[in-house]
Amino acid sequence: MNASAIKVRLALLNFLEFAVWGSYLISLGQYLASIGMGQDIFWFYAVQGIVSLFMPAVVGIVADRWLQAQRMLSLCHFLAGAFMLCCGGYCLLTDVPQFAPLFTFYTLSVAFYMPTIGLANSVAFNALTRAGLDTVVHFPPIRVFGTIGFICAMLFVNFTQFQMDYNQFFTSGVIGMVLAMYALTMPQCPVNKGESRSLADMLGLRAFKLFKQRRMAIFFIFSMLLGVSLQITNSYGTSFINSFGSIPEFAGDWGVRNATAIISISQISETLCILLIPFCLKRFGIKGVMLMSMFAWVLRFGFFGLGDTGHGVWLLVLSCIVYGVAFDFFNVSGGLFVDKETDPSIRSSAQGLFMIMTNGIGATVGTFVAGKYVVNRLALADGLTPLEQLAGWRESWYIFAAYALVVAILFIFIFRQPKESISSDDVRRAEEGNSGADGFIANS
Questions:
Q1: Which runs of consecutive H residues, i.e. helices, occur in 209-276?
Q2: Structure pTM?
């Protein structure tokens, strides 16, 4: 197979990989709120971080030693898609869906989906290497199609209005089943049956010794603190925008009917902002770029608090634009910092630890606390009038903005800027290493 053909096939693989996720990740909160589970939204988003703490490692071990990665990718998507279809089927056949069965099906689905992000990367790297192509040069443009797939799926569920019902589950499940079959057509990946490694090596636990180094410990702690912000707007952004429909002044606004489309600007911004990272890293250094990300989170939440779907819709759009800086600048520059500061023997494990601290522990704790102790009490409490609910939403966004501001200020005084210069190769490697993320796994 020629190089052009394999790149097209891998682009389609990435498109489908993230279309599965984009079908429900942003719109799920709207549907849950519409069936009376508004106060349970945080559980559905927090569980993604919980399963990400162990499922990718477990599935990765199986793919490394016993089952070829492309077959493991197919199996995981088949199971994830099947359980997502169960979510849709349960909601279709039940007049009033209950939390326990829906959450169980959903958890099983995301438990098998989250490992596929890393598996899809492994399949792509193997295929490119077998075709004699440089992964650093050729993979990032291929990975962009993942973000495009995520955006297309978001827009599809928005304009079909699946964002407001259980059909978003069916959409994701069907795409997952298609991808399960398509993954089997990918070039075969090797397994390492004869390689003997300790369990600590396979799980990436040796990277935890980096906490003995003061600067690395500070970095990972701040990674976790910033990770707290990652999933909040994914969890509640569309529910917040949709809540304006209960207020007569805003009820007929385009934004109320197209909340998912508005949030999709965030993912579009990601694809553009990543192009600014090489210049900003060379001009301001790693600390400067990470600070830009932290202050962008302040603006992300602050603009949400100030905006509305009427004359203030431009503030919601501006919030989505700065999201590209908030998300990409920290994940890419953070990955670069880890790459430069760690020994090659544990570099992959260190990158995994970075993901655990941000998208695992940080995002899980942040979603849980934000949902249970802020949004549920201020915006989704029983008995609130629409205007009282709006006031609660605004207060919630301001609380999140204040938190991000405190983290940024502490980072200024505690974290020291490394002296090493940054090369263009470093930047490309960081972009490649963090190319598996869309709004959650830095991995959009």
A1: 214-227, 232-242, 254-257, 259-273
A2: 0.83
